[in-house]
Amino acid sequence: MTTLPNLTQKKLGLVIDLDTCVGCHACVISCKGWNTENYGAPLSDQNAYGADNSGTFLNRVHSFEVQPTGDEAAAQLIHFPKSCLHCEDAPCVTVCPTGASYKREEDGIVLVNEQDCIGCGLCAWACPYGARELDQAEGVMKKCTLCVDRIYNENLEEVDRVPTCVRTCPSGARHFGDLGDENSDVSKLVAERGGMDLMPEQGTKPVNKYLPPRPKDELPEFDVLAPFLEPVAQEAKGFLGWLDKTLEKL
Amino acid sequence: MHPAPSVIIFTTFSGLGFGLLFWLGIDPTPPKGWVAFVFWLIAYAMAVGGLLSSTFHLGRPERFLKAFSQWRSSWLSREGIAAVATLVAMGLYGLGLVFFGTAWQPLGWLGALGALATVFTTSMIYTQMKTIPRWNMNLTPAMFMSYALAGGALLKGNITMAIVLLAIAGVVQVLTWITGDKAFENSGTTMATATGLGNIGSVRAFEPPHTGTNYLMREFIHVVGRKHSQKLRIIGVALGIIIPVVLLLLPIGHWIALIAVASHIAGVLASRWLFFAEAEHVVGLYYGKR
After folding, report:
1. pLDDT score, position A225
2. Residue B65 touches partner A, C-beta closer than 8 Å
3. Could B67 and A202 be called an inter-chain contact, meaning their C-beta atoms sit closer than 8 Å?
4. Chain B residues 270-289 with a CB less than 8 Å from chain A
């Protein structure tokens, strides 16, 4: 049934560090690669080499510019990977008319049973994060599986039993673990860095957390001579002075 | 939201069809024989045609039977069940009236109740979306129900009832627009909450994830045509409400009634187009768009 479990044994999810992400899109590519070759229908592209190409992705990296308020601080560029947040109160699951969407009781992963999906798109409507995309070739809904076919896969080396985006990230901006266990590394990281929910007002209780960018360093005034080097001349003299006065009068 | 023709046709015509079925079901002196046949034909053409149209936007329409299974949590599933139950009850009721000339009244009442439930469940599919603040309010079911009841009364030829209900539908529609225009701001969802970066400063979308478009942008970010929304609102109310009411106040004939119905349908189609085209999904914020 597409009712949500009251409690999941684990809350597996990702912690994404917005301070460390360099916006290289490697997670996007490795996600597309792994999930095209493995679990479920491949992630198709339409008109891949044409003018208006588009395709299905489970992970996309946005970039935002943030202009700090109040002072003359420089604008910050923040790269922002976005995928399914495996919400505790996942609105995408309860709207599903067929039972194709479900949240697993054992680890909290939200999945789609593609054999049951009629491609009505309602779950994508219900998701505030844009985590679900209807594959245009297969006609079924695709979403992040948290690489369910990697994390429990004993055929893989232990180091590879994490979502492929986490394994690929060259800057260590992505972390995987049980956010329901407060002693896990990811939970400690969230506590230490003030991990946050996206759109908390939507009431979805996302499992994935985002670590906000650390405050920027401020360069201290260290040059003892600097005060003596301030400009001496306050008013222009000579030709420029004359020009300035003349232009003022006009 | 992308105003897909399939869902506009679906909500408009199934609303009218089930509205007509409601009035047929509660009629204490229902039509019989050929007259009943024509009424039932119109109602079923609209209700079933609308439902069939809604399957055109499915990615896998051949699996539609599965959609009846999740009535415990899904409004879409409940709608499917309510629609089929109503069509069965009213079908049997119509059978009695057309072929046997007898009114199996309890079936009619049951069907009328089912027709109301169908329109209500349809409206709840949209109302439940917290992600689309314009829809996420009590006025949405009121709007769907009042249009269906007014349109049904118009088709049934209950002139006094139709005039009153059309007026009510007009008021509800205008209230829906007034409240809906402020809904996104009132929802509290902004680029700041979407990104969690609001406490640093003002957030601006700098670079999208890709140079092209994608499913999300096609489905949820529809800006073309919104600039004409005020004109379309006037057209919608004029055709859907005012012209039919004026025509009904004239000495009525079948041809005038037909014009009133056609005008009403055109008006509801315009309003329903706006219902989708003007609805803004919060996911647009990640793209710096609405």
Report:
1. 76
2. no
3. no
4. 281-283, 286-287
Question: Best of B186, B193, B195 to disrupt the A interface by mutation (most A CBs within 10 Å)?
Answer: B195
Residue that is last in its domain, among B89, B108, B128: B128
Other Cβ atoms within 10 Å of B70 Cβ, number: 27
Residue span of the structural domain in which A198 resides: 12-211
Residue A183, domain member (yes or no): yes
pLDDT at B82 over 70: yes
Give the total number of structural domains in chain A. Answer: 1
* Least Cα separation, residue A238 to chain B (angstroms): 45
Task: Supply the pTM of this predicted model.
Answer: 0.89
Q: For B222-244, what is each residue's pLDDT tens digit? A: 776 677 889 999 999 999 999 99
Task: For residue B186, give the chain A residue with the closest CA.
Answer: A201
- The answer to the question of residue A243 being in a domain is no
Q: Which residues of A179-213 are buried (b: 16+ CB within 10 A; e: fewer)?
A: bbeeebebbebbeebebbbbbeebebebbbbbbbb
Amino acid at A141: M
Same domain, B79 and B174: no
Do B287 and B205 fall within a single domain?
yes
At residue B204's C-alpha, the angle toward residues B198 and B207, to 5°, is 130
Please give the Cα distance from B284 to A74 (Å, whole number). Answer: 26
Minimum distance, in Å, between the CA of residue A241 and any CA atom of chain B? 41
What CATH number does the domain containing A122 carry? 3.30.70.20
Residue B29 identity: T
Nearest-neighbour CA in chain A from B215: distance (Å) = 6
Chain B, 149 to 188: residues with Cβ < 8 Å from chain A are 187-188
A71 is a domain residue:
yes
Q: Are B144 and B120 in contact (CB under 8 A)?
A: yes
Q: How many structural domains comprise chain B?
A: 2
Give the pair of three-digit tokens for residue B40: 């039932």
ipTM of the complex: 0.91
Mark whether B290 and B174 lie in a shared domain. Answer: yes
Q: Where are the alpha helices (DSSP H) in chain A?
A: 26-37, 91-94, 122-126, 148-151, 164-168, 185-193, 238-249
- Tokens read off for B32: 């019989």
Where would I find the H helices in B27-74?
33-54
Q: Are B76 and A52 within 8 A, CB to CB? A: no
Of B72, B80, B205, the CB nearest to A62: B205
Of A158, A159, A102, A94, residue with least CA distance to A122: A94
Q: Please report whether residue A6 resides in a domain.
A: no
Angle between helices B5-26 and B139-156 (to 10 degrees): 60
Cβ distance B131 to A127 less than 8 Å, yes or no, reads yes
Domain of B280 in residue numbering reads as: 137-290
According to the model, what pLDDT value does residue A1 have? 56
> Do B111 and B153 belong together in one domain?
no
Residue A90 phi, psi (nearest 5): -75, 110
B154 CA: distance to closest CA in chain A (Å): 32
